[in-house]
Amino acid sequence: FLNLRFSHRLYLLDNCPYSALIPVMAPLLSCLFSVLILWGIVQTGKPDNYTPYKISAKSWFLSFGKFLFAFGGHSAFPNFQKEMKKPRNFPGSILLAFTIKLSLYIPVGITGMLYFGGLVKPNILNNIDPSFRVLNGCILLLVTVQAIMSATILGNPVAEMVEDAIGAQHKAVFGWKRLAVRLAFVAVTVVICEAIPRFDLIMALIGGTTINTAVFILPSLFHIKLAKKDSWIYLKYTLDGISATFGVVAGCVCTFASVFHIVDELSKTSLNAFS
Asked: Which of 56, 69, 186, 269 has its CA 20 to 30 A from that of 227?
């Protein structure tokens, strides 16, 4: 939803009049498949062997990392603000974006836990009754299309940095340098997906390291450096310090918990393979 106020510079569609459909359709598809997932969970119902989900310190920090992973778009915020026709509206767009995002995440998470408890799987779609073929097919199709659109939006800032470094002209929509950079990004993404079949194992690790740094630590440090020195300056320093400290502590614990969890899961997989 941040992109609803954007100009039309998106990926290779800079000069395409239909490029604005990408930032509009991506959040709409998110809303649609979230509703379908909720409906699928309710229709599936509680399993006979239902057990409550056990909360522990390890599960909390792993969940913290996975939750942060969902907010990975922070790294693209400066580019979003730059591309907006009215950058001064950025704070309102941020508030709207997070409100809508949480209104989708929280109901799905709470409903999934209430219905499946300790049996909930890393991918909630795997808990939905497989006999609902049409529903599952629609959800997978919507998720796939939305993921492609989101990758187009969030990958654009990084790709532009590489293009600037190699001297690619942004006005040349189909210049060979731009095509090479974008194709390389897609190829690297495919390699990562194929090399890590269980992506749920590294979600908490990524969330507790890179995304935690982009969400809690760096914004707080930048704000301390750039904050206007007025009567509220010490309050700003205090809040920024708390945010940065929380990010460092929680990120370190989450990273260690994620690494131990990965090692534990991989060791179980190896034992099962040889048994």
From this structure: 69
Name, in order, each residue with C-beta under 8 angstroms of 261's C-beta and a sequence gap of 6 or more: 58, 62, 201, 204
Higher pLDDT, 268 or 15: 268
Are 262 and 201 in contact by the 8 Å Cβ rule? The answer is: yes
Q: How many CA atoms lie within 13 A of 39 on its CB side?
A: 12
Query: Residue 182 is encoded by which pair of tokens?
Result: 């974008």
Q: What does the block give as tokens for 71?
A: 């907010």
Instruction: Name which residue leads in pLDDT, 116 or 157.
Output: 116
Number of other residues whose CB lies within 10 A of the CB of residue 148: 12
Q: Note the maximum CA span of the chain.
A: 67
Residue 138's φ and ψ, nearest 5 degrees, are -65, -40
User: What is the average pLDDT value for the chain, to the nearest integer?
Assistant: 80
Mean pLDDT throughout 131-152?
85
Tens digits of residue pLDDT in 43-68? 999 988 888 888 888 888 888 888 88
Answer for the pair 120, 112: CB distance below 8 angstroms, yes or no: yes
Is 93 exposed, middle or buried (CB count within 10 Å of its CB: 0-12, 13-18, 19+)?
Answer: buried
**DSSP 8-state secondary structure symbol assigned to residue 72:** G
Q: What number of H helices and E strands is found in the chain?
A: 10, 0
Measured from the Cβ of residue 41, the count of other Cβ atoms closer than 10 Å reads 23
Query: In terms of pLDDT, which residue wins out, 11 or 182?
Result: 182
pTM over 0.70: yes
Q: Token pair of 79, please?
A: 């580019």
